[in-house]
Amino acid sequence: MNLLCEDYFLCGDNMLYSKDLPVLNRYDVIVCGAGVAGFTAAVAAARCGAKTALVEKYGMPGGVMTVGGNNEIGLFYRGSRQIISGIGWELVNRLEENGWAIIPEFNDKYDHSVQNVIVNVPMASAEMDEMCLEAGVELLYHHTLCDALTENGKVTAIVVSTKEGMKIITAKYFIDATGDADLTFFSGFGTKLGDNGGETLQPGTLRFYWSGCDMSKIDCIQVENSFSDGLKKEEILRSDYWSLTGSPYTIFSANGNNINHLDINGADSISRSKAEVEGRRSVVRLARWARKYVIGAEKASPEICSPEVAVRESRRVIGEHIITGEEYINAVEYPDGICFSYYPIDLHTHGSNTLYNVPVKKGAVPQIPYRALLVKGAENLLAVGKCASGDRLAQSAFRVKASCMAMGQAAGCAAALAVLKNISLHDIPVAGIRCELKNQGAIVP
User: Fold this and answer.
1) Distance, CA of 164 to CA of 370 (rounded, Å)
2) pLDDT tens-digit profile of 227-250?
3) Which residues pair with 368 in a beta bridge?
């Protein structure tokens, strides 16, 4: 496929470059991004009979859950009531049966923060591989999305970077599960970054794992005092430890999980590069402080560090409906409600260690409408996960993994039904999507 010509030339501050690119393959459905939302979308579409490809820049699925090191999945339940099942819940149970997941007791008397499912990262990624392959999904790892082609309101193809060079992949329908709305952005459809062009975004976190710590000797009070001393001497920074996790003792007891807060714009590669450097510097500062001041941590060593900072907030698509925070916490019932979501508004504050937290109305369960997955102006493009259509407050709640899994499965079913009927995603009857979701074991509004 020839994009422009066979040469390049300078044009002011820009360089026009073009090249003949080979078409790698053609599919019914392409899912971009193999995080938990993309994983469920791909499996759902393939189980419906659509020829499906899952395009991912890394060599493993799971996104924030695996590459990002945050191996907690919430929330499948509101108290004792299950509100999300389907493919995501199937993954959890397959892992738990073999000892690779811990499923907590779900009960109204417990805070939502202790009702996450904990999974083993390498085993979770391997199980996701198997579920994709069993469904017939073609896994295209190490294929980095770098552009998209559109025509008359339709995405016609994507451009990916591979070890053999850039290639074209075509499909009838596309699902943006990149987390940063990359596919939507490259396709020229509407996206939004924060509320002020990205100047204020939630901070990211770099996960790491300790070894060499003798927890029997590490005392909470001594850690708190030594942390205060470290701050005064500027040997550590306030951003190195997110204070809302409790005492600085959790730096060790949580094994490096959700500890630091790093300024990052997930839609900007330069910003991400700086955040990766600052994240590793943060881990270095904590390790040096621990060895110097904390009794029981004299041999503390960060043995494993996630390869990238996990991003809480990035671009969101502008969909046919934008879920507001008020709609979310009041659990508005939509005529096209396609799945449930449950988590409080959870906006981590830029430049500080504070949290804006608003609970969902008592006893209620928010819904995600199908229109929030439909990219405005696009005939054959859906967006799922944390880049779905919502304002910042709603996104801070529905970005959690179980909700992303539910959205992904709904989008996969919708895309497959559109393939079968050969119609626009906007014309798919919601009742038909709900029916297929039920066939796949999902819970629907």
Assistant:
1) 38
2) 999 999 999 998 999 876 678 999
3) 339
